[in-house]
Amino acid sequence: MLILGGGFGGIGAARSLADANADVVLVDRNDYHTFQPLLYQVATDLLETSAVGHALRDLFHDQPNVTVHQGTVTSVDVGKKHVEFSDRAALDYDYLVVALGATVNFFGTKGADEHGFPMYTLVDAMRLKDQVLERWEAADRDPSLIDDGALNVVVVGGGPTGVESVGALAELYRSNFAEDYPDVPQEKARLILVEAGPTVFAMFKQDIRDYTKKALEQRGVEVVVGDSVAEVAPTRVTLKSGREIEAHTLVWGAGLQASERGGDLPVELQRGHRVPVEPDLSLTGHPEVFAVGDIAWITDSKTKDVLPQLGSVALQAGEWAGENIARLVKGEKTKPFEYEDKGTMATIGRGAAVVQFRRGRTMKGKAASLAWGAVHLALLSTGEDRAKAVIDWTWAGFTHERSNRISVQADVNDDKRSDT
Fold it and tell me: Counting Cβ atoms within 10 Å, is residue 108 exposed (0-12), middle (13-18) or buried (19+)?
């Protein structure tokens, strides 16, 4: 069987086939798995890259029926059970799991693709980290850049990605950078969260929305709702209301669009180009093909709601798809997917997080922070990754230090000189 994608869905599917009588081939464009929910912590220097990026091959050293390859998918032909790649030989399959994820959706916003900083891949996180550090260093060398908006950051999107990113930036700015750059007035380093809807965290209950807005504002974040970005330039962000914001950095956390490979499948794509699946996660008319993760349009069997593009959904769906394939290999019938909703959660900053459980009960503050940490530790790929995260979180919690705030830039003359 063939698994396309090494994210939560792909890994879940492969691991659930450990005892199946099947040869499993997993192909991803990268040679590592990315723990996407914590990318913003890499971008804001709290976690090192190795805590959220783990070598895919390393994850399956104890599973001999799995082979991992690196490759970029260029076409999927379910009629011929054939997949082609741009950088390796084509592969045929008996069973297929499509877990190719999504890409950032800029919704046609002028300049956003060229000048914005999305938050979906490890490369995205590293680019944003380097951008923020470089702008502060540039302002330290030339203070006139401060009034031009060099230190200002506009974060687009009032959902978990946007709120968590701007909250982490606020911690970095108001704590670490305030000490690193004592000559920079903090009020001149602005953080602006822009949400097109009437409120942040629209998916949460009102008490969480109110708590989140207050927590962000207490951390020096300007919250703008009911407006959206019309154009992004290198040093300016223009809103649809006509307001122009001096900012050299724009973080885009406003939406996703499923992988274009979903268009290769013989189904009518749903909103966000997502692939609709049957209750057992298979493709209509092709019981040997399954779609999971951000590329899939999965309807909850209990609530009849479409499940969100979250890591927990992808992981559980991937595991279920793998189990269904194992059933098919044994000549058994597949079972409808049953999602275990552990609640929706997000962290805003130190000691400030929110949780909304399935039946509507909410949790805020330090207790929610502990719950958030426990769930995210459980989702990390290995014990080594969990240990790294715990060490970094604990150290930052006690000392407020973020030792990862360095930028390593390549220099063409590095091989011609020493560090003496």
Answer: exposed
What DSSP assignment string belongs to 343-409? -EEEEEETTEEEEE-TTS-EEETHHHHHHHHHHHHHHSSSHHHHHHHHHHHHHHHHH---TT-----
Nearest to 370, CA basis, from 352, 392, 344, 388? 352
Task: Return the pLDDT at 387.
Answer: 63
For residue 397, the one-letter residue type is G
Set out the domains of the chain in order of their start, with CATH numbers.
2-29+71-104+256-329 (3.50.50.60), 112-254+344-399 (3.50.50.100)
- Please give the pLDDT value at position 401: 57
pLDDT at 417: 45
To which residue do tokens 């499940």 refer? 307
Residues 9, 325: Cα–Cα separation, whole Å: 14
By DSSP bridging, strand 221-225 and strand 53-55 are unpaired
The SS3 assignment for 28 reads strand
Say what angle helices 383-399 and 366-379 make with each other, to 10 degrees.
150
pLDDT, average across residues 173-181: 91
Distance CA 344, CA 30 (A): 29
Q: Which pairing describes strands 236-239 and 229-232: parallel, antiparallel, or unpaired?
A: antiparallel
Report residue 226: phi and psi, to 5°.
75, 20
What letter represents residue 236's amino acid?
R
- pLDDT at position 350 is 85
φ, ψ of residue 311 to 5 degrees: the values are -60, -40
Q: How many Cα neighbours within 13 Å face the side chain of 325?
A: 36
- Contact partners, residue 276, CB within 8 Å, separation at least 6: 267, 268, 269, 270, 284, 296, 297
Residue 18 burial (10 A CB sphere; 0-12, 13-18, 19+): middle
**What integer is the mean pLDDT of 384-406?**
58
Residue 406's pLDDT band (boundaries 50, 70, 90)? Answer: low
Total residue length of the chain: 420
Average pLDDT, the chain: 91
- Verdict on whether the full-model pTM lies above 0.70: yes
pLDDT of 420 reads 37
Q: What is the pLDDT of residues 14-60, one digit of tens each?
A: 999 999 999 999 999 999 999 898 899 999 988 888 888 999 999 99
Least Cα distance to 98 among 303, 273, 339, 300 occurs for: 273
